[in-house]
Design a protein that fits this description.
The protein contains 5 helices and 22 strands. The chain is mainly beta and 298 residues long. The longest helix has 14 residues.
């Protein structure tokens, strides 16, 4: 019976190669501190462009500690909450920078390394394997359309650090922990984010508030979580107005997502410009379905 041949992850022994990868990841890893906490960041370009998570930098500015312990002021130059990404810029040149890898080609079982600053411990590196890729998910209230999941040990402070393959190429930005698994935003999504190619968050043009529904009404209209969102305002000439929404309409589903338990709020947060959505609502004791096409926020 044929047997598989195993190769070192890079020249020399496996342990030496792993140490080389760890050293490289530390050289492109920064600590990010903001007014509400902090985490990690990944140096993306030699001119001081740094990628981190949106939740790491809630404000417009932050402080970045480089691998050589130098501290620089950073400003947020772009953010995309839906993919939990943010870009920082520091005044620097000649920095060691990450080498992006082929995240679209990542396979389950692939060896990966994660670097970050968990619990403030600078430059911690852990290893594991990829568990799955590519499935849509909502983790900790943050929606990710694509993700790399790996059994790599992470802790608070790892967010924004690199997830790399066995050659040290970055295949994702670590974003969160779910069920003991590391969840990373794939590098091809990061590349699109930095190029301004991700669809912007969509705008419908309504205001509303969540209201409880009487049990009989909820049962009649399939609102089995007992809640709806009553429309209090429809902006003139907005996508909602063009679709026919009216004040007093009670939305019970958005693209099949129920209104209660933050479901509809998450749905509105995920609206994309140019991507039509289906609204199911109660109007004058009747169920009405409408389709609206969100536009980019001006």
């Amino acid at each position: 019976m044929a047997t598989a041949t195993l190769h070192p992850i890079a020249g020399g022994s496996v342990s030496e190669a792993a140490a080389d990868v760890a050293a490289h990841l530390r050289s492109v890893l920064v600590a990010v501190r903001s007014r509400d906490g902090g985490g990690s960041g990944t140096i993306w370009r030699q001119d001081g462009l740094i990628v981190t998570n949106n939740h790491v930098v809630p404000g417009d500015t932050a402080e970045v500690q480089l691998p050589d312990d130098g501290v620089l002021a950073a400003r947020v130059i772009a953010r995309e909450p839906e993919h939990d990404l943010a870009a920082l810029q520091v005044e620097a040149s000649g920095l060691a920078a990450a080498t992006p890898g082929d995240s679209a080609g990542v396979r389950p079982g692939q060896l990966v390394f994660a670097a970050g600053n968990p619990w403030g411990l600078r430059g911690t590196v852990t290893a594991g394997i990829v568990a799955s890729t590519g499935k849509a998910t909502i983790e900790n209230g943050v929606p990710l359309e694509e993700a790399v999941r790996a059994n790599v040990r992470l802790a608070p402070g790892n967010s924004g650090g690199p997830l790399a393959d066995a050659a040290g190429r970055v295949i994702g930005i670590n974003a969160m922990i779910s069920g003991g698994m590391a969840i990373a935003v794939p590098t091809h999504i990061v590349t699109r984010f930095l190029a301004g190619e991700l669809p912007g968050r969509g705008f419908l043009g309504i205001s509303g508030r969540t209201i409880p529904l009487p049990p009989a009404v909820a049962a009649s209209y399939g609102a089995d979580d007992g809640a709806g969102v009553i429309v209090t305002e429809v902006i003139d000439d907005s996508p909602a107005a063009k679709a026919g929404l009216l004040p007093g309409d009670v939305i019970v589903r958005l693209d099949g997502v129920r209104a209660g338990s933050r479901g509809l709020a998450v749905g509105f947060e995920r609206l994309k410009a140019g991507r039509p959505v289906r609204l199911e609502l109660i109007r004058a004791s009747a169920m009405v379905e409408l389709e609206a096409s969100p536009v980019a926020r001006s």
